[in-house]
Amino acid sequence: MVDELDPETVRERIERGDEFDLVDIRDDEDYEEGHLPEAEHLTIEELEETVVDRDWADDVVVYCYVGKTSVQAARLVEEYGDAETVASMAGGYDAWAPESLEVEASNAD
To answer: What are the residue numbers of the active site?
Structure first.
């Protein structure tokens, strides 16, 4: 079973400088409009294609828009990746943004 972390816990881990992979699996457009600080972007399709070959950190947190797809993605990383702990961010980006927590936007070319 995949653990779920609330957005506040993820924020605290970012602020402390904890070592973990933070993966945004939303589509390109959503990621470019805004994402969590330090988040790496992989669509769910890219994750499926690369999960086995990636060098994962010991801890991984995955998020999507509302938290459903990220649970599936976290299961993939848990089953096929080499991370020790994997979690999904409960409520996804939708739960993060209303809390007025910091977001970053990508510069689209």
So the answer is: 64
